[in-house]
Amino acid sequence: MATRAPLHGSKKPPAPSNSSLAPRALITLLCAVSLYFCFSLFRKDAPPPSFFYPVVPATTNGACNYSDGRWIYDPSIRSPPRYDHTCKEIFKGWNCIAGNKSNALDIIKWRWKPHGCDLPPFDPSRFLEQFRDTSIGFVGDSLNRNMFVSLFCALRKVSAEVKKWRPAGADRGFTFLKYNLTIAYHRTNLLARYGRWTGGTSGILESLGYKDGYRIDVDIPDGTWVAAPRFHDILIFNTGHWWWAPSKFDPLKTPMLFFENGVPVTPPLPPDAGLDMVLRHMV
Ligand SMILES: *[C@@H]1O[C@H](CO)[C@@H](O)[C@H](O)[C@H]1NC(C)=O
Ligand SMILES: *[C@@H]1O[C@H](CO)[C@@H](O)[C@H](O)[C@H]1NC(C)=O
Ligand SMILES: *[C@@H]1O[C@H](CO)[C@@H](O)[C@H](O)[C@H]1NC(C)=O
C-alpha cells in the first residue's frame, strides 16, 4: 500500500475487467493493520509519527515502525469482533463466517505485532471523531476493496446512520452522517488506463510481431479514479496482483504493451518495468 499524489490527465473511462480475484486469507486482519498504518500517517490532530521519517530505527524514542513485525496467534483477542458476518457490505463468497468456513472464527484471533511495540486495537468511535468532515478514497484492486469493506463494517457497527452513494466515479461509497465522514472505493487493477489492443497493417509494434494485447497508457490514470484526487482528502492506493495475472495478460497471446505520450514504448517492456513507469507517472 502506498499513498501517492496522482497525476491528472485522463479523459475517457476505460473498460476495466470485472473478474474477481480469488479469496484471500487473513484479509480482515491485514486490513486492520494496514488501515491503522495508513491513518496514523494522516491523523489531523496528531504530529506525524516518527516512522514516517527515514533512518529512525524501530524503537528509538518510543517510535514504532508498524510495518516491521509479524502475525501472532492470540486466543484472547477480539471478542466481540469489530464486526460480524451480518455486515451487508461483505461479498457473499468472501463472507467466511456466513459461509461456514471451518476456521473462520479462528482467523480473527491472529493479530499483527510490530517488533518493539504494540499496535492498539482499532477504535471505530475514536476514528469517526478523528476523521470528522473528511473524505477517504481507496483506489486499487480487490485487496483495497477488502480494506474498504473492513473499515466500513467496523465503523457501521458504532454509527449506523449511513448514506450510500458513489462519489467521484467510485464503485461504492458511504457517508457516516453524524460525522460527515465519507469513504469510497474506486476500482482499478493497474492504476493506469488500459484496454484491448489489436495490431493493424503497419506500426512499430506490428513490425516487432505483435498482433494482439493490452494497451496500457502509463501516464493516464484509470477513469474510475481520475476525479478522486479532487474529491477526497486522503487517498489509499494499492496495485500489484494484476501485473502478474497471466490468465488475463498472457505474456505470449495478449501481452501488456506500454504506451507513453500516446506512442508505444520500445523496445517493449516486461510488466515489472511497466509497473515502475506507472508508479513514476502517478507519483
Ligand atoms: C519499516 O519496516 C519495513 C519492513 O521491515 C521496512 O521495509 C522499512 O524500511 C522500515 N521503515 C523505516 C522507516 O525504518
Ligand atoms: C452454514 O451453516 C448453517 C447452520 O448449519 C446453515 O443454515 C447455512 O445454510 C450454512 N451456510 C452455507 C453457506 O452453507
Ligand atoms: C463535510 O465534509 C466535506 C469533506 O469530506 C467538507 O468539504 C464539507 O464542508 C463538510 N460539510 C460540513 C457541513 O461540514
Automatic annotation (TrEMBL):
Trichome birefringence-like N-terminal domain ranges (all copies): 63-118
Membrane topology: Single-pass membrane protein
Transmembrane stretches, start-end: 21-42
Sequence ranges assigned to domain Trichome birefringence-like C-terminal in this UniProt record: 119-280
Subcellular location: Membrane
Record-level GO cellular component terms: Golgi apparatus; membrane
Record keywords, A-Z: Membrane, Signal-anchor, Transmembrane, Transmembrane helix
Main location per the UniProt record: membrane
Any one GO molecular-function label of the UniProt entry: O-acetyltransferase activity
UniProt-listed Pfam families: PC-Esterase, PMR5N
UniProt record similarity statement: Belongs to the PC-esterase family. TBL subfamily.
Protein name: Trichome birefringence-like N-terminal domain-containing protein
Organism: Salvia splendens
Lineage: Eukaryota, Viridiplantae, Streptophyta, Embryophyta, Tracheophyta
